[in-house]
Amino acid sequence: xxxxxxxxxxxxxxxxxxxxxxxxxxxxxxxxxxxxxxxxxxxxxxxxxxxxxxxxxxxxxxxxxxxxxxxxxxxxxxxxxxxxxxxxxxxxxxxxxxxxxxxxxxxxxxxxxxxxxxxxxxxxxxxxxxxxxxxxxxxxxxxxxxxxxxxxxxxxxxxxxxxxxxxxxxxxxxxxxxxxxxxxxxxxxxxxx
Amino acid sequence: xxxxxxxxxxxxxxxxxxxxxxxxxxxxxxxxxxxxxxxxxxxxxxxxxxxxxxxxxxxxxxxxxxxxxxxxxxxxxxxxxxxxxxxxxxxxxxxxxxxxxxxxxxxxxxxxxxxxxxxxxxxxxxxxxxxxxxxxxxxxxxxxxxxxxxxxxxxxxxxxxxxxxxxxxxxxxxxxxxxxxxxxxxxxxxxxxxxxxxxxxxxxxxxxxx
Lengths: 193, 210
Prior knowledge:
The complex is a heterodimer of chains A (193) and B (210). Helix content of chain A is 68%, strand content 0%. With 193 residues, chain A is mainly α. The two termini of chain B are 46 Å apart. Classes of the chains: A mainly alpha (193), B alpha+beta (210).
């Protein structure tokens, strides 16, 4: 039920409610879906080692398809899998086109990524990654910031900077990091990870 | 050090432990400590995900702008039924070699070509070894080379009123669907702009095993 949430749609809403919000004309619900799944959708062309412009085209195309298909989604709760499949299909088409073009000019430079991987295994892996993104987002604010700073930045933020940013003693970072990772793991288990 | 201490594991994964500190964990994992392996697998995923490229903000904003002020168009089920043109099979890689100039068919793929009215539908079917599902990658084009392929057209695999899989063609007329084969399956492509539905029977197509 939409009424069980905060008034404004957020990425924390479940997919069924976000889709329902979109169908009711809520741009905020749409923005929340984009925010929730942007990393997932973009990760697919990146895994195909696409150039940034090609990856951008695929990314945009997936959202156009979702917009067209919103009223027809048979199971809005399966949006995650739908997005993965559509993004994969688009990349697969891109790969076929590229292979044809490059073979005709003799420039084909190797097999595409994941050519030997079963689609279902590949899809399951992407679903797990998305669960991980959602679980990190669902962490308490301090934990989320810490996990992002320590694991999701390249290069990782030094302990001293993390401690300063979060107002913690540097010596306690390791302990708190462990607690945050435990929370992350529990959240993931609850999500069926 | 406890075998399941996630703090130590995080340090181990992030390579900040000295080799002396890493040794007990390495030994536990090598001895088949299931919980250790599970924790390390989990942390591996955290680290693997962290290496992904961030999404450029301008792309996110462009995606948000896809949604206009008005809600999306309602279900096409309310649209009038279009006359059906049944397509006929004109090529199957199971029966003959690839047509010259056509895309190369990898071993195990089934490549099929259908024609009807003004349209040609090119399809590849793949079946995963351990899965009942078939991946259908298709392309619909106009027979007239000067005419653009049908883009943003719904594509559906189903039996009777039941839909098993659906999608939309892209700007090149290409589409992909994943479905589980069963009897009396049909691929339908309603092209409203031309007032017809192109339909292909998917019975008796074995798919392929990779």
